[in-house]
Structure formats: C-alpha cells, structure tokens
Design brief:
GO molecular function, one term: transcription cis-regulatory region binding
Keywords: DNA-binding, Transcription, Transcription regulation
Pfam families: TetR_C_46, TetR_N
CATH architecture of one domain: Orthogonal Bundle
Low-confidence stretches: 1-5
Strand content: under 5%
CATH topology of one domain: Tetracycline Repressor, domain 2
Number of strands: 0
CATH class of one domain: Mainly Alpha
Protein name: TetR/AcrR family transcriptional regulator
Shape: elongated
Oligomer: single chain
InterPro entries: DesT_TetR_C, DNA-bd_HTH_TetR-type_CS, Homeodomain-like_sf, HTH-type_TetR-like_transc_reg, HTH_TetR
Length: about 230
C-alpha cells in the first residue's frame, strides 16, 4: 500500500498556478464576481495562503491580466508572407479565439473591472494596442507612418475591440462574418484615408496589386461593385 504525498510547490510555481486558476475563473465570469475564496478553493489551498503570494485580489488580477495581455498581443504576430488580406484574416481569427476563450474577462477589462483605472492595467492595455499597431505597420513595411496611416491603424484596432465587445453581448452575428468584416473594415478605412493622402494611396496601390481576386480584399471589391450596380 502506498500513500500519496502532495508535492509542495515553490513560490513561482504556486504563483503561476494561482494566475492560471484566476484566468480560468475570469474566462467564465467577470473578475468582479470572483472571490478570493473561490480562487483558493479552485487552487486547493486556503484563503490566507493566497494572500501569502498576492497582497490582494487587485494584485492577482493584474498578474493574470499581464499573462492575458501577453497572450493577446501574441495573437497579432503573423509571418510576413503572402497577401495582406489573408494575413489580417488569420490575425482576426486568433483575436476572436482569445475573445471567445476569455469573454467575461475581456469584457470586464475593456468596459471596466476591478483593476481598470490603475496605472498597471492601463499600461498593459496600451501595450497590447501598441503591439498590434507595430505588427500592422510591419506588415505594411512602414517604419515612419504618415499621420493618416497612423489614424487608420489605430482606429481599426479600436474598432476591433468594439466589435468584439458587441459580439460578446449576444453573439448575434456569426463570428466568421465579423472576422472577415474587420479585414474589410481595414481596407475601407485605408481607402478613405488614401483619398486624402497620396503617400497612403501609393502604399495601398502596392498592397492591392498583390491581392488575389478570391482573397478578402478582392471579396470586398466584389461586394461593393454589386452594391453599386
């Protein structure tokens, strides 16, 4: 007969476990609705022990947010090969994978949660947005963007956030349609900006010249042509 012996976790291992447990709970309910007692129970430890590793719920929330924000920023990383439209579509699929997996936590973060307004939280959110912005510029092969291109890219990132939040509220539009629509939105925003900026127009001509007729951008042109007919 053997007796099971519970292995004692090291400090970092225990912290990582608690962050993982918190993220799992936050993926199903708003962080506001998750108590330290629930986190402790799910981790199989006592409430006082949670406070041994994190001073309070806010610090645990911020640690979980750090991991989640790193994950979300990584969703925008895409090999710079092939047509831009197809690349953006793959990025949007991964982005909505994250939103789907972490719905309540994502919504609480963007709409207001226990750590929103703190300098740490704001810095993490802004870091994700900046990472997305840098990735899009890299795909466009632009290092010093003109003002209108910066406006296009940052507006599109905000639109992706808003679209995801609206989708989470009832999921009334098929997710796959929204992923493609957001790629179309990027092209549309860029096209409007290009109408006022020749530098941006020249960039778009180079991008569109590499797009296949059956790609996301070609699909948008077909839909617009049908609308105008």
């Amino acid at each position: 007969m053997t007796t099971g012996v519970r292995r004692r976790m090291g400090v970092e291992e225990r912290r990582e476990q608690l962050i993982g447990v918190a993220l799992d709970l936050f993926s199903r309910r708003s962080p506001d609705d998750v108590s330290i007692d629930e986190i402790a129970s799910a981790a199989g430890i006592s409430r006082p022990l949670v406070y041994h590793y994190f001073p309070g719920k806010l610090s645990l929330y911020e640690a979980a947010l750090q991991r989640a924000s790193d994950d979300l920023a990584a969703r925008f990383v895409e090999p710079r090969k092939g047509p831009l439209g197809a690349r953006l579509l793959r990025v949007m699929r991964r982005y909505f994978d994250f939103v789907d997996e972490h719905g309540p936590g994502f919504s609480a973060l963007m709409r207001g949660g226990p750590a929103v307004g703190s300098s740490t939280t704001n810095a993490l959110i802004n870091a994700v947005r900046q990472a997305a912005y840098d990735q899009i510029l890299a795909h466009l092969d632009v290092q010093d963007p003109p003002a209108r291109l910066e406006l296009v890219v940052r507006s599109w990132i905000s639109l992706a956030e808003s679209t995801a939040l609206i989708w989470l509220d009832g999921r009334r539009i098929p997710r796959a349609e929204l992923e493609r629509q957001l790629v179309h939105d990027f092209a549309a925003l860029a096209a409007v900006g290009a109408a006022y900026d020749e530098e941006l127009a020249a960039l778009l001509r180079r991008v569109f010249a590499k797009e296949p007729a059956d790609g996301p951008f070609g699909d948008l042109l077909g839909r617009l042509a049908a609308l105008a007919a």
